[in-house]
Design brief:
Chain A: This is PadR family transcriptional regulator. Chain A has helices at 5-13, 17-24, 32-39, 50-59, 83-109; strands at 30-31, 63-70, 73-81. By secondary structure, chain A is of the alpha+beta class. Chain B has 2 domains: 10-85, no CATH class; 115-235, no CATH class. Helices cover 60% and strands 7% of the residues of chain B. In chain B, helix 2 packs antiparallel against helix 3, helix 6 runs antiparallel to helix 7 (134-149) and helix 6 runs antiparallel to helix 9 (205-235). The chains are: A alpha+beta, B mainly alpha.
Chain lengths: 125, 236
């Protein structure tokens, strides 16, 4: 069976989404619902997939969490980036740039036949 | 205000707060996350419960549409569990994620189809069990050719697979061979000659135990290598 776009997206998420979660915490601590709203869609297949990832990140010391009172309802669990998390994020960033460029270059060198080629002047017959 | 690490939101996590429908959903998630530790499951479910509370905050009591939308966006419990099982780990540490497989099957490699592990190891196993007859020898040779010609395993794994699949058969024939050995002694008293024979009983209890362990190890080893082959064949 030929993998479809959904499968390709699922494969691409592995190893990437966790770092996007870390990146979302760079600006300061946030609670799960807030992070999910930002990443839901392309990066998270569904909001629920965020919580196993947050649990693992916390267990591995890349994020820390604490419960805080909320003015709008029950207490919220806030997540923040740790020093190890920041280090992991920087390592990912330094790898991501060349990786993205290499993928872009590979795709542009071998464009899909489904997509129209850029307009080229016709050769005189 | 920081409140520490305990879950003060749990008091709001009752069925009355979110509704029985949401609690059933969370129970399904909890069940689907069986591979995770109890603590992990509790943390994940607590996070999702808080999410649902946030998503339905401000909705009128009994507003099923808000909850239905929140549950839909939360996703299928099984899909969440699958995502939790194969998520990568930025720290490089291994949790419940599958062990990283260093053996990469290059595209276009020979004999990497999903039938190869079953046929190759099956031929060796059956051939080994029936060794001594003509046909099983052919099966062993065919299995060995398939195993060693396939790109699904490393050289060390192929050697281990060869030994593992043949071990149960060799152990069986070793036991059967020893169980038939008889030791006879002849005593002559005048004109009478008396011959007494006794069976060795398979080489003793220790030998039988060793052979049994070898056979079991062979079966387990074959199973592990079959599984690795299947995983790689599926991914190839």
């Amino acid at each position: 069976m030929v993998p479809g776009q959904a499968q390709a997206l699922a494969n691409l998420r592995r190893g990437v989404v966790e770092h996007c979660i870390l990146a979302s915490l760079r600006s300061g601590e946030r609670y799960g619902f807030d992070i999910a709203r930002e990443l839901e869609g392309t990066l998270l297949a569904s909001a629920g997939t965020l919580y196993p990832l947050l649990s693992r990140l916390r267990k591995n010391g890349l994020v820390a969490s604490s419960w805080q009172e909320s003015t709008e309802g029950p207490p919220r669990r806030y997540y923040s980036l740790t020093a190890d998390g920041e280090e992991a994020l920087q390592a990912f960033e330094s790898a991501w740039g060349p990786f993205r460029d290499a993928v872009d270059a590979a795709l542009s060198d071998h464009p899909s036949s489904d997509h129209p080629m850029p307009h080229q002047p016709e050769e005189p017959s | 205000m920081t409140m520490g690490q305990h879950d003060p939101g749990a008091q709001h996590g009752s069925a009355a707060w979110l509704g029985a429908h949401a609690e059933r959903y969370l129970a399904e998630v909890d069940a689907a996350l069986l591979a995770r530790s109890v603590q992990d499951r509790a943390e994940i479910v607590a996070g999702m419960r808080e999410h649902l509370r946030e998503a339905t905050h401000g909705a009128m009591p009994g507003d099923g549409a808000a909850l239905r939308d929140a549950l839909r966006r939360m996703g299928d419990p099984q899909a969440i569990a699958e995502a939790a099982a194969d998520d990568a780990d930025p720290s490089g540490a291994q949790g419940v994620a599958p062990v990283v497989d260093d053996h990469v099957v290059a595209p276009g490699s020979r004999w990497v189809e999903s039938w190869v592990p079953s046929v190759a190891l099956g031929l060796l196993l059956v051939g080994g069990l029936l060794v001594g007859l003509v046909l099983p020898v052919v099966l062993v040779i065919a299995g060995a050719v398939l195993l060693w010609g396939s790109a699904l395993w490393t050289v060390q794994e192929k050697a281990l697979a060869s030994a593992s699949t043949l071990a149960p058969g060799l152990a069986l024939w070793f036991v059967l061979g020893f169980s038939g050995v008889e030791e006879c002694s002849t005593q002559s008293t005048g004109v009478d000659v008396q011959t007494v024979c006794s069976s060795s009983g398979g080489g003793g209890a220790v030998m039988t135990a060793v052979v049994f362990v070898v056979a079991i190890a062979g079966v387990v080893g074959s199973g592990v290598l079959w599984q690795r082959g299947m995983v790689r064949a599926t991914a190839a």
